[in-house]
From TrEMBL:
GO terms for biological process: hydrogen sulfide biosynthetic process; sulfate assimilation. It holds the Pfam family PUA_2. It is an enzyme of class 2 (transferase). HAMAP family: Sulf_adenylyltr. InterPro entries: ATP-Sase_PUA-like_dom, PUA-like_sf, Rossmann-like_a/b/a_fold, SO4_adenylyltransferase_pro, Sulfurylase_cat_dom, Sulphate_adenylyltransferase. Pathway: Sulfur metabolism; hydrogen sulfide biosynthesis; sulfite from sulfate: step 1/3. This is Sulfate adenylyltransferase. It comes from Zhongshania aliphaticivorans. Belongs to the sulfate adenylyltransferase family. Residues 2-165 form the ATP-sulfurylase PUA-like domain. It catalyses: sulfate + ATP + H(+) = adenosine 5'-phosphosulfate + diphosphate. One of its GO terms (molecular function) is sulfate adenylyltransferase (ATP) activity. Its EC number is 2.7.7.4.
């Protein structure tokens, strides 16, 4: 199987040893506490689950600035996005302390991890802006990722962590949340060697379904990992439980058995476009995938990124050999009325816009809210039914 990034084997930071786990939970009750941001909590979950191998904890300021600028830590590890614990409230916390990190997303704020604080650094407004602009390609406060990043605070705590739980992800998504360790194990059990990953924060329409098939056929893979984000999203995005139900229905009805793994990971969406696409590739390699589908405006939002910026970053900013995973470059996919099937638009040069079934997100939302299923060329009826029920309940609340 493909090796993890920068390591011979995965290094999950979750404490699996039961005795040690109990002892750390008891110790946590005696330690100073910090209620972390949702972003820092999501980083802890990803570190705990092995997705961020080979990192041992949160980055310090020098590494964060180096990663933002050059996609590389100060000691030469390729990494696309700073993995940080920024806070507004570090009063009384000093380097050399052990502290308990508490979860902002679960009632009662249970201990998420114990941290050995190596450094407590004040980050200047200029440094915050420098990181934000490099990560997101903009400083526009309307960008949801920029908003979230800049709202966390300007004190950076760095150091190794020991993770004690996976926040709300295991409880809320018991059938879907998986660690990188669990995904690797299942890939091995299935006997898959070549695996392509599909990243999603949305329900999958017909074009996404066919794109997965195209990638599997073109690459000759043994299977596909449909890997959905389960964490925080911007307002208006479809919640994870609805997306999960619709994807499961689509796979159950339209894919052959033992060709798809439906899983999810506990991370908040960054909406960082190209940089996030590279992060997506890196942690899919840690899952054991050999390929990642990168389509138009992968991980984008609004008009902040060019249609193929998330593909060209792999040519322009990812050094040769930095990662072993490869990307499958996809164009916009849509149903061709001429050919009576879903195609990539680049493969249909003789088509005009009118030859495709194209619907805007707003139009689809309107139809679903009114109990009208989009055409079957756009959305499978079984998927449309789940989405219609969700939108009709939402509209009734409004």
């Amino acid at each position: 199987m493909i090796k993890p990034h920068g390591a011979e084997e995965l290094s999950p930071l979750f404490v699996y040893d039961t005795e040690k786990h109990h002892a750390l939970n008891a110790e946590a009750e005696t330690l100073p506490s910090l209620l972390v941001s949702s972003a820092a909590a999501a980083n802890a979950v990803m570190l705990g689950a092995g997705y961020f191998t080979p990192l041992k904890g949160y980055m310090n300021l020098a590494d964060s600035l180096a990663v933002a600028k050059d996609l590389c830590t100060t000691d030469g590890l390729f990494w696309p996005v700073p993995i940080v614990n920024l806070t507004k409230d570090a009063q009384g916390i000093t380097a050399g302390q052990r502290i308990a990190l508490r979860d902002p997303n679960v009632d009662g704020n249970p201990v998420l991890a114990i941290m050995d604080v190596d450094a407590v650094e004040v980050v200047s407004a200029e440094q915050i802006d420098f990181m934000a602009e490099n990560i997101f390609g903009t400083l526009d406060d309307k960008h949801p990722g920029v908003q979230t990043f800049k709202a966390q605070g300007n004190t950076m705590l760095s150091g190794p962590i020991q993770v004690l739980n996976f926040s709300y992800f295991q409880a809320d998504f018991p059938d879907t949340f998986r660690t990188a360790v669990e995904i690797r194990n299942e890939i091995a059990e299935r006997g898959w060697e070549k695996v392509v990953a599909f990243q999603t924060r949305n329900p999958m329409h017909r074009a996404h379904e066919e794109l997965c098939r195209m990638a599997m056929e073109d690459l000759g893979t043994d299977g596909i990992l449909i890997h959905m984000l389960l964490g925080q999203l911007k307002p208006g995005d479809i919640p994870a439980h609805v997306r999960d139900a619709s994807i499961r229905k689509m796979v159950e009805v339209y894919f052959p058995k033992n060709t798809v793994m439906i899983t999810g990971y506990g991370f908040d969406m960054l909406y960082a476009g190209p940089r996030e696409a590279v992060l997506h590739a890196l942690f899919r390699q840690n899952c054991g995938c050999t390929h990642l589908i990168v389509g138009r405006d992968h991980a984008g939002v609004g008009d902040y990124y060019g249609g193929f910026d998330a593909q060209t970053i792999f040519d322009e900013k990812v050094p040769a050999g930095a990662m072993d995973i490869e990307i499958y470059r996809a164009d916009h996919t849509a149903y061709s009325k001429k050919l009576d099937k879903v195609v990539m638009m680049r493969d249909a040069p003789d088509h005009s816009k009118e030859d495709f079934v194209l619907l805007s997100g707003t139009k689809v939302r309107e139809m679903l809210g009114n109990g009208i299923a989009p055409p079957p060329e756009f959305s499978r009826p079984e998927v449309a039914k789940i989405l219609m029920e969700y939108y009709q309940i939402e509209d009734a609340k409004a």
